[in-house]
Amino acid sequence: MNQNLSSSRWVVFFCTTLITLQSMALASWQQEPAKTKKLTPSPNPLAIGSTLPDFELKDFQGKPYASEAWSDRKANVIMFFGVECPLVKFYSPRLTELKKAFGDDLRVVAIDSNRQDSLAEIAALAKTLDIKFPILKDTGNVVADALGAQRTPQVFLFDDLGVLRYRGAIDDQYTYGNQKRKVDNSFLADAIKAVIAGKEPRVSTTDSDGCLIGRVMKPNQNATVTYANQISRLLNQHCVSCHREGEIAPFELTEYDEVVGWAEMIAEVTSQQRMPPWHANPAHGEFENDISLTNDQIAMIADWVKAGAPMGDESQLPEPPEFETGWQIGKPDQIIPMSNKPYRVPATGVLDYEHFVIDPGFKEDKWIQAAECRIGNRAVVHHIIVAIKGADGSSLGQIDSEWITATAPGSPPLELKEGYAKLIPAGSKLVFQMHYTPCGVAQSDLSHVGFKFADPKTIKRSVGTREVINRRFRIPPGDPNFRVEAQFPFQDDSLILSLFPHMHVRGKSFRYTVRYPDGKSEILLDIPKYDFNWQNGYKYPEPKLIPAGSVLECVAHYDNSSDNFANPNPNKTVRWGDQTWDEMMIGYFDMALAHQDLSNMENNPRTMSVIGRISSGENLVDDQMIKLAGEATTSKTRMKRFGSYAGSRISNLDRICVTRMVGQQLEVLRVVQRDKIEQQVGGEGQFDLPKDSMFSKILSNDEPTTVADLTQADGKDAEHMSQALRSSYHVPIKIDGQTASINFWSKESNAFPKAVVDVLDELVEAIK
Description:
Layout: H1 2-30, E1 56-59, E2 64-66, E3 75-81, H2 86-102, E4 106-112, H3 119-128, E5 135-137, H4 142-147, E6 151-152, E7 155-159, E8 164-168, E9 174-175, E10 178-179, H5 187-196, E11 211-212, H6 227-238, H7 256-261, H8 263-271, H9 295-306, E12 334-337, E13 343-345, E14 354-358, E15 366-374, E16 381-389, E17 403-407, E18 414-415, E19 420-424, E20 429-436, E21 443-445, E22 448-453, E23 461-462, E24 464-469, E25 482-489, E26 494-502, E27 507-515, E28 521-527, E29 538-546, E30 551-558, E31 586-593, H10 605-615, H11 623-631, H12 636-649, E32 655-662, E33 665-673, H13 677-681, E34 685-688, H14 694-699, E35 705-707, H15 716-721, E36 727-735, E37 738-746, H16 754-767
Parallel strand pairs: 3-4, 4-5, 19-23
Antiparallel strand pairs: 1-2, 1-5, 3-7, 6-11, 7-8, 9-10, 12-22, 13-21, 14-20, 15-18, 15-19, 15-22, 16-17, 16-20, 24-31, 25-30, 26-29, 26-31, 27-28, 27-30, 32-33, 32-37, 33-34, 35-36, 36-37
């Protein structure tokens, strides 16, 4: 046994030593600049007709490649490569397709000149994208400087004599955050065909979008702006929430060695205000999640980059911000997968939305304080919406009406202030609406939603997501500024918590304006340059009071012209549709009822459920219920049908009856009630009323009466009814010219606040 142990130790020692030596070897050559006869840096991209300079680089496995040996192919393509550049990930598979199409006539080589890209990262991405062509490491960006390469994935096409014939973009499908539905101009493929045929390419140069190459910089150690003192703090405040491990951003900005490689790109995107992604016009509204930079902060970044992006005094570095790994809302109380197995996403094609229904097993109502969708595979998931499906199997209205939370590029998770929450009724199921976009390589996805629950005793207001929507627009071909508008009237004093505009790739601008009952108006949110790729939500620091009688108006403009790069087809009339080449016009907003206070209703889960559904926008009184209500008093059977349906939609109703006075007796004409209640309080028939009874007062009153607590109401009849029921709502009506009332009863106390009463009044109108 000792001998075996000794042998195993030698094996471990040998393997460890071998790994160490390999690492040392890789490190040594990784630090070496390109082997060349002489490479001269060029301030401009290599001119067409120039000759490829001789150089030798190694790939990420240490194998050398020399450019002087490339005369054996009619066409040679160099693509400048970056591990974390989104366009590189889109275009690398396309180069693989070109290599396959042109066979032995074409050589494809990628060169990674980014100082921040390690060999391990290059190898990992090559495996993920199934890249077969070599990826060479250009330490010190020597070759990039010699060719004047600026961005990834910029390409250079040389013929068999090493003469540059084409330089620029691969094609015109992708640019910063945008993509066309199809390629209109295959610049590189067309140039390769021409070169192989011995002809001059029709187009020899194009502009190349993409990420700036992360070059080695010469920092000014005397600079006043440094990473340690100012830039790290700015990034922590505005960028790191997304630019960290596991989040949506394509690279991390948590360490200097990574940040400095992106320094020039950071300066570019901040000066152009492409990043951080914030699109609200500062002249209208203040929002607590505003991550935009001031002009002084943008200038500070520019000064830092001009000074060579110095680190500065490391002792001045701030403590890094703390995050729950994988979650923006913190550690969830419960994490629920969209399915019990991953979904397979094909490599190509257009996919309809997928819907996954999952039972979270909620045996009691759940109040949601925070919720976050977590994408399993960011390469293929465009957006997720998580909504409620009713316990009876029927969807609770439109998917957006029962919206719990969602994720799309740039959109924040649901995080509500104390006292506000969204309700998921007991027995409900969850619907995951998944929008998948194939990325060229077959993938799989298993996404999740995480919930943080609120104590029902702390909830004052139920929150719902409502929408200002127009589905009936027709955007003409070529129209650069087509206007679409929609309105939402407020029937109650309401509180707006957040705003979330939504359009697709032709979306140009979006504005929310509230018009108050006194004739005044206020712009709540103005988005002058809408960006489909960053669908922000805009959260108020404190809820915005909107008085009853106000109208929320949303106005959207669309650019269906050829000047819109992302436009899939400027020659098409565009209508409403799910896919991104169709359009939508929705002004989402989270709201609550201003008068609502559920804090004294902790023992009334069914009433809270009804209120939650009302405030989320669900229409509880549908056409079927109106029809049944109109027939209810004509027979016992029809009353039973009506009561059964009403109870399924308004779940806190336990008894509905129609009563009138016949002499000194109360006659219950029609009644429907839950099991066992009849045994306690009776059914149809005539009953003697004691003096000063509750019903005598109700039937003599021309106005509706609410009894919040039957145990506290006057009269023997109230005492009798309180044996089985706790609260009621009574509305006077006329039957054959006689005074009567329709009465709604619940086992829960205070079951008829204004929101529920408003719904019941709709039923009464139908019964009348």
